[in-house]
Write a structure and sequence with these properties.
Largest sheet: none
Structural class: mainly alpha
Helix content: over 70%
Number of strands: 0
Shape: rod-shaped
Radius of gyration: 66 Å
Strand content: under 5%
Low-confidence stretches: none
Mean pLDDT: 87
């Protein structure tokens, strides 16, 4: 047993040493790789300082406050525009009602005008007839005035006694 013990211990010692060597090589290779990476890609810009971050945050908060104020102003303008639109719609509805009333009055007036025009046309036709009749009557009167008048009297017997 003692003869087999030494080679086992030696073998175990060799495995432990080999494992430690592998772990050492891995650590050294990781260290070398990180140094190589740091050397090949240097940091161009310096890291941001805490004060610059604080200043940027304050600027953004001020901008957010200004935007909130702008949004409030726009909301106020929108409500004013909304009120104006409602007033305009009300006025438009009233004007539409007035326009309908005026349209009805116009239609009535046009109907009356058409009736008056028809009456005028009939009156003009009647006037033309009366003028023609007056012209005929004037012609008859003129013809009668040109003819000599003969007066004939007839007496019937009757009743006068006396000398003549």
């Amino acid at each position: 047993m003692s003869t087999g013990l030494v080679p086992r211990i030696a073998r175990r010692a060799l495995v432990v040493v080999a494992t430690a060597a592998v772990i050492g090589v891995a650590v050294v290779s990781v260290q070398l790789a990180s140094e190589w990476r740091a050397a090949s890609a240097p940091l161009d810009a310096a890291p941001v300082s805490a004060s610059s971050i604080t200043d940027a945050m304050a600027a953004q908060q001020a901008r957010a406050g200004q935007l909130t104020s702008d949004i409030d102003q726009v909301a106020s303008q929108i409500s004013d525009i909304h009120a104006a639109l409602q007033a305009a719609n009300g006025a438009l509805a009233a004007q539409n009602g007035s326009a309908a009333t005026v349209q009805g009055q116009l239609n009535t007036a046009q109907a009356k005008l058409a009736a008056l025009q028809a009456q005028l046309k009939a009156a003009q036709a009647r006037l033309s007839q009366l003028n023609a009749a007056a012209a005929r009557q004037a012609a008859l009167n003129a013809a009668a005035a040109r003819q000599p008048t003969v007066v004939t009297t007839t007496t019937t017997g009757g009743g006068e006694t006396g000398d003549r």
